[in-house]
Write a structure and sequence with these properties.
The protein is of the alpha/beta class. Helix content is 31%, strand content 19%.
């Protein structure tokens, strides 16, 4: 009969206390070279480019995490970015763990520009979400939108029986792999991930998510009631500034309308 207990923890403690040599290689950035394309931002061709980075747009090989107030329009705004990026000739992917095909059809009826986006509905792969996500990423994309981080990790956690930390590490490592262009098309994939937020309105998840993220943005309501305005604001951005607000409106349909406001 197998013994119960915590062998994994005991093994980890043994490794931590063991003495062994680790090959360490120090890096000098003046000796490193990268493809020039890695430093050419991908444009949405909207005013949002001005806050995505100082150079304007999303850089290849970066990760952006987005939270938002309920009903503020996270999916709509980010799908609008993705559709505009696709128009620039970039290869994009939308992974939806929140919507099914019927929900998406309703979206497309209001925003026809979303109709050409390639979509993976994760519910179609409920028996093997981990393998499905890994295989589709191998195709190589310029930009991938994940809606949402919580749905992907929850489905993989249920499939694999992993702890939360392990499934979180799996997804972070997978994103890092494709940031570095380990895919069939050798593309430095940029990921935009919708994430849950705490009751206090902050980013949910471990510090590792926050540390490995290039940029963190929030979509908020400014005020309450029917007259409340909506805006995007970055609280962290290694490639651009923080604190500037882009106000947006979804009332017209077919596209997202943006307006700019500088914050001192």
């Amino acid at each position: 009969m197998a013994k119960r207990g915590r062998p994994a923890k005991a093994k980890g403690a043994a490794i931590a206390s063991a003495n062994f040599n680790v090959p360490v290689e120090l890096v000098k950035m003046k000796d490193k070279t990268f493809n020039d394309d890695l430093f050419i931002p991908i444009k949405t061709k909207t005013i949002v480019d001005s806050i995505l980075s100082s150079e304007g747009g999303v850089f290849p090989g970066t990760n952006t995490v987005v939270i938002g107030d309920p009903g503020v329009g996270k999916s709509t705004v980010l799908l609008d970015w993705l559709a505009n990026i696709q128009k620039q000739g970039k290869k994009v992917l939308f992974i939806s763990g929140e919507m099914n095909e019927i929900d998406m059809y309703g979206y497309v009826s209001r925003f026809p520009k979303f109709g050409d986006l390639p979509i993976m509905f994760l519910a179609d792969y409920a028996e093997c979400p981990k393998q499905a996500v890994e295989q589709v990423f191998k195709q190589g994309f310029d930009v991938v939108l994940i809606d949402s981080w919580a749905e992907v990790t929850s489905m993989v956690k249920d499939q694999m029986g992993w702890a939360r930390g392990k499934v979180e590490s799996w997804l972070l490592d997978l994103l890092d792999k494709h940031n570095k262009a380990y895919n069939d098309k050798k593309k430095n994939t940029a990921f935009i991930c919708i994430q849950q937020m705490t009751k206090a309105g902050e980013f949910a998840g471990s510090n590792r998510i926050k540390h490995m993220t290039t940029a963190m943005a929030a979509l908020r309501f400014d005020g309450r009631g029917r007259d409340a305005e909506r805006y995007i604001e970055f609280s962290k951005n290694r490639r651009g500034g923080v604190g500037d607000k882009i106000y947006f409106n979804l009332g017209r349909g077919e596209c997202v309308d943006y307006a700019f406001e500088m914050v001192d």
